[in-house]
Amino acid sequence: MDILAVPSIGNGGLSETMSPRFGRCPSFTFITIEKKGIKAVKTVPNSAVGAMGGAGVQAAQLIGMNNANVIAVGMLGPNAAQALNALNIKIVQVPSQQLTVKEVVELYLNGELQEINGPNVGSHYGMNSGVDPGQGMRRGLGGGRRRNF
């Protein structure tokens, strides 16, 4: 029996789209697989989504607390990869195209997802994704205006 975790958009579930971001996905869908079929589905909000730092490590701990032994990922940073490896959780890479969680499960069941052992993006890759670069934490002291100090 495997418990496959899939980072999910929205509230999660089989019909939701897989989130390409691991540590900062809105939710995780946990699929219990037995005898090449889906036995159970559970969704859990990702409490690390808004973390100032360490979201990947916190998300990995959430995966472990929900007894998953396999995680399907799009983008995975070095700290999250190290945390997942420390928990002996198998990491499989999902193609970069947008897939539903159910499609990811089907690829997994068919043996079409490649196992990876480490990160596939750099550190802090998911930080501020989807945020206008001129907004939020990336704004300098001047806020875009010249200041004479």
Structure, explained:
It is globular, with a radius of gyration of 17 Å. α1 runs parallel beside α2. It has about 150 residues and is an alpha/beta fold. The termini are far apart. The chain has one domain: 2-Layer Sandwich (Nucleotidyltransferase, domain 5). It has three helices and six strands; from the N terminus they run βββαβαβαβ. A hairpin with a 2-residue loop joins β2 and β3. A six-stranded mixed beta sheet has the order 3-2-1-4-5-6, with helices on both faces.
SSE layout:
Layout: E1 2-8, E2 27-34, E3 37-45, H1 55-65, E4 70-73, H2 78-86, E5 90-93, H3 101-109, E6 114-116
Parallel strand pairs: 1-4, 4-5
Antiparallel strand pairs: 1-2, 2-3, 5-6
Helix pairs in contact: 1-2
Helix percent reads 10-25%
List the secondary-structure elements in sequence, H or E. EEEHEHEHE
**What is the strand content?**
15-25%
Count of helices?
3
Instruction: Please give the largest β-sheet.
Output: 6 strands, mixed
Estimated structural class? alpha/beta
Please count the beta strands (DSSP E, at least 2 residues each). Answer: 6
Q: How many separate structural domains?
A: 1
Rg, alpha carbons? 17 Å
CATH topology: Nucleotidyltransferase, domain 5
CATH class annotation: Alpha Beta
Q: Spatial order of the strands in the main sheet?
A: 3-2-1-4-5-6
CATH superfamily: Dinitrogenase iron-molybdenum cofactor biosynthesis domain
Q: Which stretches are low in confidence, meaning pLDDT under 50 for 5 or more residues running?
A: 126-147
Oligomer: single chain
N- and C-termini, Cα separation: 64 Å
Taken from the alpha-carbon principal axes, the silhouette is: globular
What does the average pLDDT come to?
A: 85
Question: What is the level-2 CATH architecture name?
Answer: 2-Layer Sandwich
